[in-house]
Amino acid sequence: MALGVLMALISYAMNFAIGRVVRAHKWLYREVGDGHLLRYLSWTVYPVALLSFSSGFSQSITPFSGGSGLPELKTMLSGVVLEDYLDIKNFGAKVVGLSCTLATGSTIFLGKVGPFVHLSVMISAYLGRVRAKTMGESQNKAKEIEMLAAAAAVGVATVFAAPFSGVLFSIEVMSSHFSVWNYWRGFFAATCGAFMFRLLAVFNSEQETITSIYKTRFRVDVPFDLPEIFFFVALGAICGVLSCVYLFCQRNFLRFIKTNRYTAKLLATSKPSYAALAALILASITYPPGVGRFMASRLSMAEHLRTLFDNNSWALMTRNSSPPWPAEPDPQNLWFEWYHPRFTIFGTLAFFLVMKFWMLILATTIPMPAGYFMPIFIIGAAAFSGAVTHTISTALLAFELTGQIVHALPVLMAVLAANVISQNCQPSFYDGTIMAKKLPYLPWIRGRKIGSHPVSVEHFMNSTLTILAKDMPLEEVIKAVTSTDVAQFPLVETRESQILVGIVERTHLVQALQTEPASWAPGQQCCLQDVLAGGCPTQPVTLQLSPETSLYQTHTLFDLLTLQTLFVTSRGRAVGSVSWVELKKAISTLINPPAPK
Amino acid sequence: MALGVLMALISYAMNFAIGRVVRAHKWLYREVGDGHLLRYLSWTVYPVALLSFSSGFSQSITPFSGGSGLPELKTMLSGVVLEDYLDIKNFGAKVVGLSCTLATGSTIFLGKVGPFVHLSVMISAYLGRVRAKTMGESQNKAKEIEMLAAAAAVGVATVFAAPFSGVLFSIEVMSSHFSVWNYWRGFFAATCGAFMFRLLAVFNSEQETITSIYKTRFRVDVPFDLPEIFFFVALGAICGVLSCVYLFCQRNFLRFIKTNRYTAKLLATSKPSYAALAALILASITYPPGVGRFMASRLSMAEHLRTLFDNNSWALMTRNSSPPWPAEPDPQNLWFEWYHPRFTIFGTLAFFLVMKFWMLILATTIPMPAGYFMPIFIIGAAAFSGAVTHTISTALLAFELTGQIVHALPVLMAVLAANVISQNCQPSFYDGTIMAKKLPYLPWIRGRKIGSHPVSVEHFMNSTLTILAKDMPLEEVIKAVTSTDVAQFPLVETRESQILVGIVERTHLVQALQTEPASWAPGQQCCLQDVLAGGCPTQPVTLQLSPETSLYQTHTLFDLLTLQTLFVTSRGRAVGSVSWVELKKAISTLINPPAPK
């Protein structure tokens, strides 16, 4: 509950602050006069300054604050430890940076879903630490991961005030399996967050009562004709194909930016300059008296969403009358922004889609806190965003946002069609980013072929173990410890038998070796047993693999239990170890077999 | 897709047939004249005959066809094998029995959700077997369980044409964790089912197009005032308390019926007589000219749902005019059935709730195929049914059924409030039935206390293993095999070392022992090693526990991997085994510690 309320407060406060900044920008743009140069400058300087500050500030505090954070969280939920990623000091950097990014409005065209999930998870980790400290409990990694899964739901729910899709979206994006316990906790926290978020809007007199954010209205009796179903599915398929194009372009452009000589140098030496440059390009294109006129660039992100959900046939409404282009967007008739007498509504919509397609790809390369879900949702709504993120709950999000669910079946069918295409052709936006950022991750085993492949642990385990035996002389122990940097050593009974009896943590062992040098008289044959007896704690081996365990089984184990390392024993003898590194290698070998030499 | 389409056809055909039977009953009741005796007989004989046939027919074919089937499926999904439960021969019994049960209409007041999940799972298991046979693949238990999880979603989706809540409800009810893969498959199958189900209604000219089943309409701008939220939550809490009362009464009445001398004897000797007796009681009470007049007993189940979702203030509408009691329900004004000039709407509603409460408990004791979700949903809608089943997705079901989602937040809060109370006080309807039916199951470990309790495998493992050693003489092997009936034996290297090297299946060993008696010349010391070399296959031990593994860890393993048995090794030596029986015992000891003697 604390998490939900806190996140709602942050979300609402951020929206409020951003609204003020955007209004100030609009005021400046309006008051600066009719001179084209001044107007152009007032339009572009704002986002350039905000983005370079956002990029510079957040990156100077922590390099972890860039991007949405969802790919990193996904790897964390799969059990990989990313040190400091959830540290509360990243919080300020992310909040300030994200506010600046969002304050640029639709010029840069970015959202806040991903960063809010990251913020929510940071707060939850912090609350967990505080709780553990006050209750005097030790921290529990499994519990922590459970908390994270619930926190992710809160992040989505407090952005859209949509608890159902918040929970489902976070589940689909973040993990490959989840427990029903987390799901309930997620629902509770997300409901608290969404309720608080909407309650604040009521208290601030923005709303009369708690309703959906983007209200629209459809006919209940005959919301659509039966043959329209076909067009829904076709639209879904088109969105699926386009999402593949988008994912392909996005991944390769990111790679290009990172490998191209000039951009790579610029990114390495001065991230704010790169951000400023990109912002200048994006802002110049969206300059309303210029090309921006044809892509409704004066609308904010929220207004874009409102026109998306506006249930009016614009084409019919403009057939006989041609509304004038107002001096500034008319809140009652936002869709006027989309109309141009010569281009017609369809022209501006098509132009908008084409331009935003590559502009969004450019915007995603800027190293600063920003979310990429909202722009994708505006461009292609439920089916496109579902295909890009490989999720189905975007359909539910559309229902919760609009308060209308009569199109449940056709929308779901469109999203499924889009997902079938994109999941078969491209990794999801988040998986693609994980690969591009070279984050550690455990690939999924897809399809029957690999599942039934007779690869077992003995084929891929790490068999060059540094084993500590109880009867090892101390010199050998020290040599073994210094020769490697693994965090855990398998402990065996004797050098001869190699029977695994426990695990020694590197830190404990080093501590014990450093604190007890006095008793090791030279000449006296001191062995590891003495160190262990002297107070170095060992851990029991609670789970062991066999060389015969199949790859599929091992993968399931690691995936379900979010394990770090397991030791492999054969007839009690320690013969190897498996971590996600070995697993990943084994799986990629299966997927892309090495070329025969 | 095949599963979805098949289930939709079955669901639609069953609805159609039931509709005809119900109409025939109505016709008979109308045409029989005004004589009270004849009317009473025509009202009661129908359900009595149908129920005794349903009970007798289905029980004569298979004892598994009774009840909803969800509790049994839940235990199956947790890894316990219930032989023959998914056999296709149960299918006919369940379909015919269920049709008869449902044809009694609201007299007996039962639904079809649970049995449809069971039917869907049966078909899916059958399709899986057909697929495996045609593809020449061997059956895979993990794959089978995945199929079952998806099939459960189809069952719910084809009853309510609600794919989202179908998937979520089946997840919440059936398993304690699930993989996102199953979730996607479930969505696909459920969407196919729901689409087909609604398409049939369009083709049959019942509907103009595909819409929600129970259409209603709320104001979009101000669906409710903010303070009403409090009453939503209060209503949820009341539903939570009532659900506890219901669950408590239901479980104890079931126990009473099974232990009471007369009813137990009746149930054991003649289930149809018991069904007929119960049907006679229920039908007599609902006789419309009698007490049934005050509980809208002339409405069918679907009509009950329609009046539930009817967005009209009945109290206001009846303030000035008192509608007459029509000769039969008026399809345009179904709510007239709820009105009585003296009782008023509130009187009949209260009477209905009180009467149906215990009548439903009586109806659940009848041994025949029937679902108990629908009546619970009619009595208390989302919050009550969510509390009784311990699920949250009933909220989503209400939205999908009505095509209205503007009340998302308050309904979700009511359901959460109801769930908090019922989950803390009572096992869910399904868990309660599992306990009452004494089905095998793995209890959940709830709360931190037990999770962090220092109980480890050595405290509860079964340490009286029947171990087979490779150097065991054959007489000893035979003695060991005949002395116990376990399905698997741990195989150790030598009697002295006890190092675990593999697993021998009982069936394989018995076969090998029976087929090779010729070579065992008397006097010649033949040992197990020879049998194994002679062709008895052994399986590798792919996963081992240690005596130090904690109860919590072991529980997580069994729960996530749906395991049957794991062997425990200490320094390579086989020292014990753990199955869900030991686990269950250990957990119940923790929850209810034995009284000190």
From TrEMBL, chains A, B:
Catalytic activity: chloride(in) = chloride(out); bromide(in) = bromide(out); nitrate(in) = nitrate(out); iodide(out) = iodide(in)
Transmembrane segments: 148-171, 183-203, 224-248, 274-296, 343-366, 372-398
One GO CC term on file: basolateral plasma membrane
Chief location: membrane
Domain CBS: 461-519
Gene Ontology molecular-function annotations: metal ion binding; voltage-gated chloride channel activity
Gene3D superfamilies assigned to the protein according to its UniProt record, in alphabetical order: CBS-domain, Clc chloride channel
Localization per record: Basolateral cell membrane; Membrane
InterPro entries, alphabetized: CBS_dom, CBS_dom_sf, Cl-channel_core, Cl_channel-K, Cl_channel_volt-gated, ClC
Family the UniProt entry places it in: Belongs to the chloride channel (TC 2.A.49) family.
Protein name: Chloride channel protein
Organism whose genome encodes this protein: Cricetulus griseus
